[in-house]
Design goal:
Elements: H1 13-19, H2 22-26, H3 52-67, H4 70-77, H5 88-93, H6 107-113, H7 115-123, H8 149-161, H9 167-175, E1 177-181, E2 187-191, H10 194-211, H11 214-232, H12 238-241, H13 245-253, H14 256-267, E3 296-297, E4 301-302, H15 303-306, H16 308-318
Antiparallel strand pairs: 1-2, 3-4
């Protein structure tokens, strides 16, 4: 399993049993790259399989590693359980470009309605109410730009998947992380030394720039529009969004019109900046959430407070203009 390569080995029995539930199995067939991996953009076309299941289990194991708390670990495992096919592209469909939280709305319902999940929780004497919201547990999740298990997992995972760092470097990052009280007196995943925090901080920024790159934003927007048209045309239903990507794609391809639209989406391979090559009907202005991490260094403070060059780079990222039109062919 992918996550074995830079996390501690071994998964608690509770997590193993919860991972065998149908709701968690579905996440094996929902990708972490929100549909971008189906395009022909050079950045995305060679990505390895990286599923919401990989991410969820990795997040839960990080929480377990630092807390050994079954409740927090289970809550972390479930944090993406209501993620639809193509993940945050459905947030774009819902008009939630900037917060990208619409896909979390059904988390409680999915957990409560699962007989298998509730049965495992009863076996381990865990109240279902305690695992419905991982935002309650700061090691699992906290407000950006703090570091949580969720952000740590997808940052490490994407540094590997985008081929920005070898696995050996990811292991070093992981070994440098500890739990410390931040400037607000709240426990947070922190770095034990400033040098590791600085390297990780700059690497996380490299990922952040990819998340809001023109290719990423345009692909998510165009996919969301395709999904919307297919739903309005009766080819897809809202229920299909809560299935698997393979099944949804098969439905699109079963209709000649949407099979062609899917083919065009997959064929997108480069951004077009020249006005004469960018048809008006293909141009989009796409604002999107700017995910970022400002690591905390134990006994020293937030990286942006102790490293001015990093603070400058972080500010440049936050101020990045997204008001121009973008287009791809």
């Amino acid at each position: 399993m992918k996550i074995e390569r830079f996390y501690h080995r071994g998964t608690p029995l509770l997590l193993r049993k919860l991972c065998e539930t149908p709701e968690m199995h579905r996440l094996r067939h929902v990708g972490m790259n929100c549909g971008c991996e189906y395009t022909s953009f050079k950045r995305f076309r060679r990505l390895r399989d990286y599923s919401r299941y990989d991410h969820s289990l990795g997040t839960a194991r990080i929480v377990w590693h630092f807390t050994e708390d079954p409740v927090q670990s289970a809550a972390a495992l479930f944090h993406d359980i209501a993620t639809p096919t193509f993940a945050h592209s459905v947030d774009f469909l819902r008009g939630d470009h900037l917060k990208q939280e619409a896909t979390e709305a059904s988390t409680e319902r999915v957990i409560r309605e699962s007989k298998e999940i509730c049965s495992v929780l009863r076996e381990f004497e865990i109240p279902v109410e305690d695992v419905l919201d991982y935002h309650r547990y700061p090691i699992a999740d906290n407000d950006a730009p703090r570091l949580s298990s969720d952000r740590l997992e997808y940052t490490l995972g994407n540094l590997e998947n985008y081929r920005l760092r070898p696995v050996a470097a990811l292991r070093l990052y992981y070994s440098a992380i500890c739990v410390a009280q931040n400037e607000n007196g709240v426990d947070e995943l922190a770095f034990s030394d400033a040098a590791s925090a600085m390297e990780f901080g700059y690497d996380a920024l490299r990922c952040s720039r990819i998340y809001v790159s023109d290719e990423d934003r345009y692909a998510m927007q165009m996919l969301s529009e395709l999904l919307g048209r297919a739903i309005r045309g009766g080819i897809l239903s809202e229920t299909d969004l809560m299935g698997t990507e393979k099944a949804l794609i098969a439905k699109l391809k079963s209709d000649p019109q949407y099979a062609m639209e899917w083919k065009r989406f997959r064929a997108m391979k480069q951004m077009v900046e020249e006005e004469e090559l960018a048809p008006m009907e293909l141009r989009r202005i796409v604002p999107a959430k700017k995910r970022c991490i400002d690591p905390f260094v134990r006994d020293k403070g937030r990286l942006s407070q102790i490293c001015e060059p990093f603070a400058d780079e972080l500010e440049k990222f936050r101020e990045q203009d997204q008001s121009h039109w973008i287009c791809a062919r």
